[in-house]
Design goal:
By secondary structure, the chain is an alpha/beta fold. The protein contains 16 helices and 7 strands.
Length: 363
């Protein structure tokens, strides 16, 4: 069966890449500035591989780029009966190993987890004697529970921290807490209470406010943290959160003319994550397959709808009460300035980190 797979790859234009490792073979197809790698891994290699070694192999494969090639996609075929072990190896580096099949030669079965391609380079035809089955479901509620184990520690920690702080704020009084730790131009830049740029990131004005923010944090945070890793993800989250409140304070002061307007919420930082997600899916479109079923359009829709509602409400207030745009923006309650600032800052910070990771990988 392995020989048929290799024969099909060679007939589809793939060429073998020398690899001095037992139980593994690499085949490459060049398409302009992109190379497509098929990585064949035998049972013996799966059994003796840990997650650290797996990441090392992935990094090494990424460096095998001919001159003029700037992007690599990897399709892994595991010839193994150890399905969970194969999935675990892929989940440890899912941002780089973009798709995979598990060919169980013992049961004569090809397991294709949801979100993985139904065919690749015509391999489905040469494996026609095998039974094709869907593996782990990665959509709906059961899929969410399965993917929950791949949510990073920082994403979980941020969600828990926001909930605990919200409970404390509710006991003290949400409005009092916002006045004590929320952000405004007057308090931050005129009175020098710079700490509010950070504390405001962890405050919320209502239950619906925190539920909406934490839902977005879990959905998009697990995508970005999976690629950036925890320390870089936390740094990006903090920078986007603080930067979004700088944008918020400046927006309320100079656009809305409301320098004393308070702002609270993690939405600026979360919009930073969404901006990072959009950049990730733009520069590495193949990572959409390993994003746990999260559609790229969901990020765009979230930005448009949440801010569009605020703008429409402001327009209604302005037309109904004949007030200025500044006062209308204050009354509608959505901090558009923090949202847009967060998207831009998160996208820029992520792209800088992405380039550093790519440059280090090419060295």
């Amino acid at each position: 069966m392995r020989e048929k797979v290799i024969e099909q790859l060679c007939g589809s234009g793939f060429e073998e890449v020398p690899l001095n490792e037992n139980g593994m073979k690499l085949y490459r197809y060049l398409n302009g500035a992109r190379q497509h790698i098929v990585w064949l891994i035998e049972e013996s290699a799966v059994a003796g591989m840990n997650k650290y070694q797996y990441r090392q192999y992935v990094n090494a494969i990424q460096t095998l780029r001919p001159e003029g090639v700037y992007s690599t996609t990897i399709f892994t075929v595991f010839f193994s009966s150890r399905q969970e072990r194969c999935r675990k190896l892929c989940s440890e580096d899912g941002s780089r190993v973009n798709s995979y099949w598990i060919v169980d030669t013992t049961r004569k079965m090809v397991v294709i987890d949801e979100g993985q391609p139904d065919d690749y380079a015509g391999l489905r035809r040469v494996l026609a004697d095998f039974q094709f089955e869907r593996g782990i479901c990665t959509s709906g509620f059961l899929g969410f529970l399965h993917r929950f184990r791949n949510i990073g520690y920082v994403t979980i920690g941020l969600a828990v921290a926001n909930v605990l702080i919200f409970i404390f704020s509710a006991i003290k009084g949400l409005e009092d807490t916002a006045m004590s730790f929320g952000c405004s131009w007057h308090l931050v830049f005129e009175k020098g209470e710079v700490y509010r740029l950070f504390t405001a990131v962890f405050l919320h004005a209502s239950i619906s406010h925190i539920v909406g923010n934490l839902t977005a944090l879990v959905i998009f945070g697990m995508v970005v943290e999976r690629w950036l890793r925890s320390s870089r993800f936390l740094l990006m989250y903090c920078i986007a959160g603080i930067g979004s409140f700088v944008a918020s304070a400046c927006g309320w002061k100079y656009i809305a003319g409301a320098g004393t307007q308070y702002s609270v919420g993690a939405s600026g930082a979360i919009y930073g994550i969404i901006g990072a997600t959009i950049v990730l899916w733009t520069v590495r479109p193949e990572t959409r397959k390993s994003s746990g079923g999260v559609s790229p359009w969901l990020a765009v829709l979230y930005v448009l709808v949440s801010n569009g509602v605020g703008i429409v409400n402001a327009a209604i207030y302005r037309a109904t009460w004949h007030i200025s745009w500044g006062r209308a923006l204050v009354k509608q309650g959505v901090d558009i300035f923090a949202h847009l600032g967060g998207v831009v800052i998160g996208a820029l910070i992520f792209y800088i980190m992405y380039r550093r990771v790519e440059n280090r990988r090419d060295e």
